[in-house]
Design goal:
By secondary structure, this protein is α+β, with helices and mostly antiparallel strands. It is built from 10 helices and 25 strands. A hairpin with a 2-residue loop joins β7 and β8.
């Protein structure tokens, strides 16, 4: 009997302790903050407070820019000036009411308003003890919100997910918001040491099965593989895209088989809820871009990437022995994942050997490269003074098909050290590297005694000066970029996170540099 009483007492004590612990837990989770708010209210009155919440418009969660206490809402430019309907939903843990344009609500409200860039809608939230203010701002650029484990970010891929808001979704025949699981890693070599990182992103169906997922993001190609370029080394943020656009304009009258189009779009990026800055979402240069022949037992395309300024000596016996993925200043990017790449190395290096080691002649140029591609490539590097793109670095060399008498195609890449930007050892990336007055000609055209080639350079430059490399085209392109980055404050948000850029000064310096540079190229080519 005594034993039963002891058991009953033990049970009473045990369950009493559980109830006390549960009460303490409830107090800690719910009432502690409530009581603190009540005490603060009693002594100080209603105070402003940061209210934790999420906000959706038309069922899409918006990223929150903490610096301005603002939700960014990219709008379709086709809607500018029109009335648009917004279904606004706010989720918060607190018993809070909200007011927008004089209308009070608990969780959601429908609102009709005119679509205008920089339009700001105030959200006033309050309860008995405190209040808070946040804002919705209408913006223009696409936004990528990436979630992952930042501690695991390295050169190796790690899991994550992305939400992409595309304001031009109608034009791009897509959805306003696209979501996907991803693999993500850091990208670059020297850029790995910069504070602002670049990334390689692969879309996949699920982080469980890791099957690739192809999507046509922002009107770009339908693919699973993407690059997020941080633009960190470019003080203007526009050099890469400006070079891309000029390259594409240069090749409008060229056969599609003789050049690769370069594409990218400005975006704003959030990483794990924190603003990461202004980026360019780019298509990588790969076998898909270049439409290379698929690898089989008997055939394949070949793609080499120049990774530094250390060209091959092109020794005949040496290039026969190359098997791995890298050789001097080159990496083989296609075919992929082969243990023995020797036949592909030998084929393409043998073709390149005559040009890079012998006496350059019209015949050698004609036999090695597509002449229209070769001439345009040389003129782009010369006109923009692309100091970091002389072979082999930041150049792709490709052969479309081993079983045809195909020639080598040249494709430029990473064109940020252009338009007056120069690399200076041991100095800051942004600032001292700007050498806008330095327009002298560097040896980019590789002139020897090739009459046909020289004639082609002269006639092509004359055509391009009228149609591409002139004040009208440059001013239109850079003005478009300026408007794109300033109209809703994207460059200001970039500056709040990273180094300050006076974009208007940068744009004008590029305009002035181009004027001087193109005249210098005129004089140089005229003397050939």
């Amino acid at each position: 009997m005594l034993t039963d009483k002891k058991k009953i007492i033990k049970n009473i004590v045990f369950y009493s302790m559980l109830i006390i612990l549960a009460g303490l837990l409830v107090y800690h989770l719910l009432w502690k903050e409530y009581l603190a708010d009540a005490i603060n209210y009693a002594f100080n009155g209603k105070q402003e407070k940061e209210i934790e919440e999420t906000l959706k418009i038309n069922n899409v969660e918006l990223p929150f820019y903490k610096v301005d206490n603002t939700y960014l809402y990219p709008i379709n430019k086709e809607d500018i000036g029109k009335d648009i309907k917004l279904n606004i939903e706010i989720n918060t843990n607190d018993n809070v009411k909200h007011i927008i344009e004089g209308k009070e609500f608990d969780k959601s409200i429908e609102l009709t308003t005119k679509a205008e860039y920089n339009k700001v809608i105030e959200i006033y939230s309050n309860n008995t003890f405190y209040y808070g203010k946040k804002y919705i701002k209408f913006t223009n650029l696409p936004i990528l919100s990436i979630n992952n484990n930042p501690k695991k970010l390295s050169k190796e891929y790690t899991f994550g997910n992305v939400s992409i808001i595309d304001p031009d979704y109608i034009k791009n025949e897509s959805d306003y918001c696209i979501k996907s699981d991803i693999n993500i890693r850091l990208r670059g070599t020297s850029s790995l040491y910069a504070d602002k990182k670049s990334y390689r992103v692969r879309l996949q169906e699920s982080n469980n099965n890791q099957r690739k997922k192809k999507l046509a993001l922002l009107g770009l190609r339908n693919d699973s593989d993407w690059i997020l370029d941080s633009l960190y080394s470019d003080s203007s943020k526009i050099r890469n895209l400006l070079s891309y656009n000029l390259w594409n304009l240069m090749n409008e009258d060229i056969s599609e088989e003789h050049y690769a189009k370069l594409n990218g779009k400005f975006v704003e990026v959030f990483m794990n809820g924190e603003y990461a800055g202004l980026y360019v979402l780019k298509e990588p240069i790969d076998e898909k871009t270049l439409n290379l022949k698929e690898t089989s037992n008997s055939d394949s395309g070949i793609l080499l990437k120049g990774i530094d300024h250390n060209p091959s000596p092109f020794d005949e016996e040496d290039i026969k022995r190359v098997k791995g993925s890298a050789y001097y200043g080159y990496e083989i990017k296609y075919p992929k994942d082969l243990k023995d790449n020797s036949q592909y190395w030998y084929i393409i290096l043998s073709k390149m050997k005559n040009y890079y080691t012998g006496n350059i002649s019209d015949e050698v140029i004609e036999n090695t490269f597509y002449k229209d591609n070769f001439v345009n490539f040389r003129l782009l590097l010369t006109a923009t003074k692309a100091l970091d793109n002389y072979e082999p670095k930041n150049v792709y060399f490709s052969l479309n098909n081993l079983n045809k008498e195909t020639k080598i195609l040249l494709t430029p890449w990473d064109l940020d050290l252009t338009f007056g930007m120069e690399w200076v050892e041991n100095e800051e990336i942004i600032g001292p590297r700007k050498c806008y007055e330095n327009v002298e000609i560097i040896e980019g055209i590789n002139i020897g005694n090739q009459k046909n080639y020289i004639d082609s350079i002269k006639s092509r430059w004359e055509f391009l000066r009228k149609n591409v490399f002139n004040d009208k085209v440059i001013n239109e392109l850079v003005s478009n970029y300026y408007n794109e980055l300033t109209v809703t404050g994207a460059i200001d948000r970039e500056n709040s996170k990273w180094k300050t850029v006076d974009l208007s000064v940068e744009i004008q310096e590029i305009r002035d540099w181009c004027k001087k540079r193109f005249v210098a190229v005129d004089e140089y080519i005229d003397k050939l």
